[in-house]
Amino acid sequence: MARRICVSLLARTPEEMRRLAEAAAELGARMVELRLDGLERGRILEGLRLTGDLGLSRVVTIRPEWEGGLYSGSEEERISLLERAAGSADFVDLEYGAVTENGGVVEELRDGGCKLILSRHYVSDSPPSERIRSEAERMASLADIVKIVNKPSNVAEAVQLLSLYSAPWAPGRLVCFSIGEAWSLTRILCVALGSPFTYASLPGRAVAPGQPTFTEALEALEAASRIWRSSP
């Protein structure tokens, strides 16, 4: 089950990113998300370079402020950094909102040799399910993996998001769950519904509300797997 967990790492220096990646590997993680938007702008790609020899599958994310991240530089510079990272990373996470503003960016990232995650974070609300489903289908036509996160105000909105897994294209390609302590269970349920992986953290280093630690996620997934296997 460890391969179904991506550990999010947010550091302030490349050296700290290296230490966090080593800690994740020691716990048994096989996949990490490098949140490079936390690094100094002149050293962003060092965080990728310094983690290249640990045998980890790496997702590169440079999350801009307009999507809840820390990167405050120009969009042109950010896209350039992602394109340069594409040759070394296994996955690059690109916000869906950036696609319409940067023609050709999807092709440029794919030409780098990595797989593309298109992401959409509804961090202030959860729009109608019809709108989310329509956007998800457009994203799926462009990307290898579609990531959609919402912040529900009630159970119905959380369930509506998980209903995206019923789409024919979703198994193995859709990662969607709800953020917030009240909705942390959706981070486990998403794997049961067909998500290729879910996101977790190092102890005391949660990157998003409701994010379990790697060990918590691993134990929950293993327990759930035993239940699923024993069900008639």
List the helices and strands and how they pair.
Layout: E1 5-10, H1 14-27, E2 31-35, H2 44-49, E3 57-61, H3 75-85, E4 91-95, H4 96-99, H5 105-111, E5 115-122, H6 129-140, E6 145-150, H7 155-162, E7 174-178, H8 186-192, E8 198-200, H9 214-230
Parallel strand pairs: 1-2, 1-8, 2-3, 3-4, 4-5, 5-6, 6-7
Briefly, what is this?
This protein is an alpha/beta fold and about 230 residues long. The chain is built from nine helices and eight strands.
- Number of helical stretches of at least 4 residues: 9
What is the helical fraction, as a range of percent?
25-40%
Quote the distance from N terminus to C terminus. Answer: 22 Å
Mean of residue pLDDT values: 94
**Class computed from helices, strands and strand pairing:** alpha/beta
Strand proportion, as a percent range, falls in 15-25%
- The H-and-E topology, N to C, reads as EHEHEHEHHEHEHEHEH
The profile of the biggest β sheet is: 8 strands, parallel
